[in-house]
Amino acid sequence: MKAPAAAHALPAVKRARGRPAQGASVDRETLLRNARKTFAKHGYEATSVREIARVSGVDAALLAHHFGSKDALWEAVVVQIAEHAAPMIAATDALRTSPFGTRERVERAIAIYIDKVFSEPDIGLFFATAATEEGARLDLLVARMVRPYHDVLVPLLADAGKQKALKVVDAEVLFFMLLNGISKTVAYGHLMRVFSTLPEQERKYKRVVLETALGMLG
């Protein structure tokens, strides 16, 4: 559950080394969102703390003061995304013990996921870029963003396959096809606008993405 912005407000500070007054009122949530969008656009290596500071309208020293290194800032972005995804994961996990049939559980899980993707489409772009990382950053991405959702959705897919409610050749493959297909379709809505006006009609776009995803399940 998102904390109110005020809960993360950075206190006003006096100008001193490493603690500039410029932009001091920008809250932590906004700084992390701007960092997320910048990392998503350029990737980790090509993104500088100075660029994130420029986008946020603050001095780079303020980011250094509150997050330390660029690596720590990237990790904070991943943690923020994980925190925002927690309610979605909990709702998906609860479906396995719900009274719905195995197919309807999957359908409801996909609807929950699509709601989340549409509410924060830039997460898909961040993930697409961050998934090319290696080592500790990739490990953190898997541990905080991928595995928690994997561990609640894959059992729903597998259950539906066992009950013949869905044609599931491989639950793992289906998981990644759904995860990436939906998130990238929404995140790259600007590209689809070249061919269709659908992304300009968010409610209709959301409904069509859901119906298409469900249709792909057979």
Automatic annotation (TrEMBL):
Species: Paraburkholderia acidisoli
Low complexity bias: start-end ranges: 1-13
Domain named HTH tetR-type: residues: 25-85
InterPro entries: Homeodomain-like_sf (IPR009057), HTH-type_TetR-like_transc_reg (IPR050109), HTH_TetR (IPR001647), Tet_transcr_reg_TetR-rel_C_sf (IPR036271)
DNA-binding recorded as keyword: yes
GO molecular function, one term: transcription cis-regulatory region binding
Protein name as catalogued: TetR family transcriptional regulator
Keyword Magnesium: no
SUPFAM superfamilies: Homeodomain-like (SSF46689), Tetracyclin repressor-like, C-terminal domain (SSF48498)
Region (Disordered): 1-26
Alphabetically ordered keywords of this record: DNA-binding, Transcription, Transcription regulation
PANTHER family named in the record: HTH-TYPE TRANSCRIPTIONAL REGULATOR BETI, HTH-TYPE TRANSCRIPTIONAL REGULATOR RUTR
TM segment ranges: none
Lineage, opening ranks: Bacteria, Pseudomonadati, Pseudomonadota, Betaproteobacteria, Burkholderiales
DNA-binding residues (ranges): 48-67
